[in-house]
Records
---
Amino acid sequence: MCFPDQEPDRSHTAMKLNGGQALIKSLEMEGVEVMFGLPGGAILPVYDPIIDSPIRHILVRHEQGAGHMAEGYAHATGRPGVAMVTSGPAATNIVTPLCDAMLDSVPIVVITGQVPSAAIGTDAFQECDTIGITRSITKHNELVTSAQDIPRVVREAFHIATTGRPGPVLIDVPKDIVDPRNPRSAMEWYWPESVDLPGYKPTTQGHPRKIRDAAALIAESRRPVIYAGGGIVRSGASEALFELANLLGVHVVTTLMARGAFPDSHPLCLGMPGMHGNYTAVTSMQQADLLITLGARFDDRVTGKVSAFAPHAKIIHVDIDPAELGKVRRADVPIVGDVRLVIEELIKIVREQGGRDSQPDRHEWDAQIDAWRDRHPIAYEQGWDEGDKLKPQFCIDMLRQNTPDDTILCSGVGQHQMWSSQIWKFDRPNTWVNSGGLGTMGFAVPAAIGAKVGQPTKTVWAVDGDGCFQMTAQELVTASAERIPVKIAILNNAYLGMVRQWQELFYEERYSEVYLSPDLPDYKMWAEAMGCVGMRVEHPDEVVPAIEKANSIDDRPVVIDFRVDSEEKVYPMVPAGASNDDIILGPAQGPGGH
Amino acid sequence: MAPIAPPPHHILSVLVENKAGVLARVSSLFARRAYNIYSLAVAPTDDERYSRITIVVDVESAPLEQITKQLFKLVNVVKISELSPDESVVRELMLCTVRAEPGTRGQVIELVGVFEGRIVDVGHNDLTVELSGPPSKLDDFEDLMRAYGIVELQRTGRVALAKLEREVPRLRSLGRVG
Ligand SMILES: Cc1ncc(C[n+]2csc(CCOP(=O)(O)OP(=O)(O)O)c2C)c(N)n1
């Protein structure tokens, strides 16, 4: 029995918290170790309990940095990255990373502050319709309306971000429900043991009959190619892919997002296909009679002109996102499911059927591929005579040869990104951190910081363009202050190089608005001003010593300004909208092509 | 010149969680992918956790498949069915104020009767008619009324339910839930 004014004492069962405390505690429950962010009025009540939390908070200099750091962390670790920022301008600053994470299926959770519930809709100071703005660039977003909902919403956010096709989830938190001075922030702590989302049930197991159909198609194919995409990395399917490729003896192309998903050192690896892919990867897809498409999405940068893409190929397409199946190219065997689980099932079936011995003789095809490979390798020419310019490819090549095998490589967007993906030899998944889908300049520096935070024992290098670097370089201040020793190689070609390349090839060398002075800013001094070690390299002879010096520094960030040849172009190239058959080979890549 | 075939209508019946902002998610998904919504009707269902959105779109089947797949990616979307016009009951409601001066009033009233409409408001020279039914019936009525002069007209979006199966005993159909 209970008297009206004598509430039963529930303090031993339920802990009373305020919303801000509940939010931080929920992140702890999710196993969050680190978050990236920058406080402000609306989110201040959530920043307060961070002092009492074991979670490490890294104070960024610009919210875009926080978002890309969370992405870099996720790329390098496979675990969700977390960023927290305030309302209004902070929320708009993090829009780019959200869109970036959406297109590259990167699991991140972003928390934004919002004006108090009562002020929503009044154009209050720093109010912004964050939910509206980010609706189409998040996997899901939610405005929390009650403090009591916080643990549930956080639990759901991590679940949605990391399962199915991973992606960004945003939680918008009005100030009143986290502010201890407001009665609306009072809540009774609980932790939901499970999530209840009736509309969200990703299919992970592939349909057994479809997988059998796939095995049958493979067993009929004379010219198959495995087309491996970023989904391999996201689902942790690299080992399974390795086994499958070996079992079948089928060559593998790894897309820009999948570099490292299958080791470049393996004889079956063909490297990157697409607009700047190598001749063999592009052409073998064009000539294939079967594309075993695993966690890839027929991006236009891979297919070129879709109607002319791999015209003779039947398609097996495995993806966890049903909307990818048939979106660009109709699949003969579409399989919805987690790519790792599907590959594992496929392996079982191929084994049952006799493994490699059950496969047709593909000598001719393999020989053809080898011939292409010999004839058109990715190549560059570094001259050593006086007056010979430093080649960007040479810098990347030397970087690769003089860094540990498990080095994580991050890049910005532009020519340096394409050279990195072409020349670096990737041997492990999660070692290539890059903005593929959105192509976000300014990604490299903050992503490298996030990657290093997630993998502190690994060497993390970023290869950046001089244009990209100037977009987010200030995050090196964050890195210095937080003692995060990343290493940045700027390939300083004095231009927005990739744009210049297009102007050269398609705009009659009318170089409009792409020149960046190589000396302004002085990158060495700028790096030093930000607490980093700065170096400048102008001659091929200086490249390796500078890299070795950078590798020996591990108490602060290092920036090397490589003064590279402005005229160097990325080859091969399939012009935008052209057929992959019209691939243009560069001067160093042998005859053939156009 | 060959007449241009009207774009195909597809009726999607979308069960969504009854949460704030879900309609905005659904409609902005159409906008983002540049698909036109022909008509839209939303209301709660008998289960307070869910609402039903009936969307009519004019697209070819292939993009439609892509649209439904994209829609289904929305976390709050629980179920999507496409209702074929032949196998579903489709209704729309119209309110129409039409010119009905003393000379023509009788004719208008008679036509309203033929269409089983109801006169819900009467003015000196106008009548307001309420009419519900399949969209084609409303189209016909609208055509006829144009001759008298339509003052104002408002139609709701379409709502639809799948037709009941005929072979199975009626009791079983009724007993089915969800
Ligand atoms: C935020 C953003 N703005 C513009 C672009 C378009 N864009 C793509 S590559 C590029 C040039 C990059 O120049 P730089 O960083 O110097 O690298 P480089 O191509 O010279 O290696 C530009 C402007 C982009 N991808 N991202």
---
Amino acid sequence: MGNRVFIVGVGATKIDEHWDLSLRDLMTEASRKAIQDAGLSKRDVEAVFVGNMSSGYLQGQEHLGSLLATWLGIPGVAAHKVEAACASGGAAVHSAYLAVKSGVYDCVLAVGAEKLTDATTSDATSALMMAEDQEYVAFAGFSFVALNALVYRTYMKKFGVKQEDIALFAVHDHKYAANNPLAQFPKPVTLDEVLRSPPVADPIRLLESAPLGDGSAALVLCSEEKAKRIGKDILIELAGSGLATDILSLHDRPDLTTLAATVKAKSSAFKQAGIESKDVDLLEVHDAFTVLGVIHLEDLGFARKGEGWKLLKEGQLERDGDLPTNTMGGLKARGHPVGATGVYQVYDLVTQLRGEAGANQVPDAEIGLAQNVGGVGGTVVVNIVRRVR
Amino acid sequence: MRSVPRVWRERVTKYRLIGGACKDCGKTFYPYRRSCPVCGSDNVEPRKLPETGVVETFSIVRSPPTEFVGQAPYVVALVRLDDGTLVPAQITDVEPDEVHEGMRVEAVLRRYREQGEKGIIEYGIKFRPVISNE
């Protein structure tokens, strides 16, 4: 089954509208922090995987692997960009995992970075739509929010669920972001504020949608031998990483209310980690829109179809509930710098497993699962981390 | 990013609504391609799709991509054609607030977007409400 893989260092910038920082500044800073956190030298890094979706369109900049290696001052290392729309970050973690698991490299960086505020809102909207079929779906004027709105409307109709029970996800995320210094919106919101915010693409309202922001997060992944040589008190294993695709466009799929790629990626990651749903102590779901958060709980096997919202309403997703979820603010309030999100999710899980989550700390968590979605489920990555005693 | 040949090469599938039918699993889909998106079979044939159907689900775009700025609010939908095929398209010739699930619609050729001031104008199929003759 290959070598075991350990996360020995993490680093991230605050998610924000960083007017004073460029894309390269952000990813260089996160990488430096992660290497420092690992207690390693940058010269220990043998390969770099950069998750990013839209640098070509938004910054006119591609070739991020060589760019980051150059700006980090480690020219010559293996390095390249990994792109899978909003799942680019998770896919970079997946690639880095495979690189260490295979035994080819002993020490690699998985970085996610995105800078959305170099563009106008309409340009960022165009960039996000590049996750979909350009010739037949983007062509027709759909926005990415509108695609998710189709899922939302279909879900509410099929299962008879009210919007107020789904929109609660935004309230949940904001509550935890309030205690996260890296979060883009560290403040609570009320359900009434969410439901009265303006519609972006009916029925999705502004406060049900993840914000546009900039940020970068990075992880240092090492082989078991190298991790043990570093000698940390708490060892965090990247115990499984599953990636799966689904039919790209919604109109080709048999069911709009389930993401088949989540089910497949989860099964693959569970098999690698040797665990089941009931073993998961801590969850990060890709709730770019409230309804997607609810659907993910179902597709990951924690609720029956049409009933994910009940976990939310019954308080099971709270810090002291049965299934603490998005306990650092989730996509809605920690923020969603698209290609960085999958790495932030793992960063947040590691923060919890190390006991460094402050007021959001979940007691005694051992196994965490991060689900990162590209497009409307065209790609899903599931990464599983485990604290090793 | 867009170009004349890029629009031109899609003209048959796009303007005539040419989809595909899978002879193995029975799925019909749009646009035509050589493999069935659901079962993966290559035993697929092109098929002219019907030009009438109903609105399956829809949304009103209020914050549009750059190419559609100035057109919002407008309605995007999945239309269930009479043979069961789902197609993505705009709903036109109707106020956004009047669109509803199950609304009967028919295909019309309409302008979608322009490739800048000097570029070509892209057309495609939109759907408008069917006006009853009864």
